[in-house]
Design a protein that fits this description.
about 130 residues, 2,3-Dihydroxybiphenyl 1,2-Dioxygenase, domain 1, 4-stranded mixed β-sheet, 2 helices, Glyas_Fos-R_dOase_dom, Glyas_Bleomycin-R_OHBP_Dase, VOC family protein
């Protein structure tokens, strides 16, 4: 199981408010806060996300094909997380909406895609009734 995901940053203090706002909407806050590393989540809770300056001292770069997904409780929260991301310096990578067809249980993957200020690709998603 995943405990947390770490993303590189070149501006920890500048990018932290982006994740503070996302975390607040998700009902969590900072669980670790150091000069070169901040982690959001809840100890003993679901997987968290962390932002760090690269340990090797080199410039942080975006992983091609890498994405972190935040599981939202419903479609409204997916939309709010997308709005929060854009309001906090993020860029749009795909407006909220259904992706693909409903599964055998009548649920559809509902998602929004965005990037943080460093260009890391993120997603907010939920499984939602196809007719709702």
């Amino acid at each position: 199981m995943i405990g947390y995901v770490t993303l590189g940053t070149n501006d920890l203090q500048g990018n932290a408010p982006f994740y503070d706002a996302i975390a607040k909407e998700m009902g969590v806050g900072r669980m670790m806060d150091f000069d070169s590393f901040i982690a959001w989540g809840e100890p003993g809770g679901a997987a968290g996300v962390a932002l760090t300056k690269p340990y090797d001292g080199n410039t942080a770069t975006v992983g091609n094909g890498t994405m972190v997904a935040f599981e939202a409780k419903d479609k409204e929260q997916v939309r709010r997380l997308h709005e929060i991301a854009l309001a906090n310096g993020g860029t749009d990578e795909g407006a909220p909406g259904p992706r693909g067809d409903a599964d055998e249980n009548g649920l559809v993957f509902y998602a929004a895609y965005f990037r943080d200020r460093d260009g890391n690709k993120l997603n907010a998603f939920c499984m939602s009734p196809a007719d709702g």
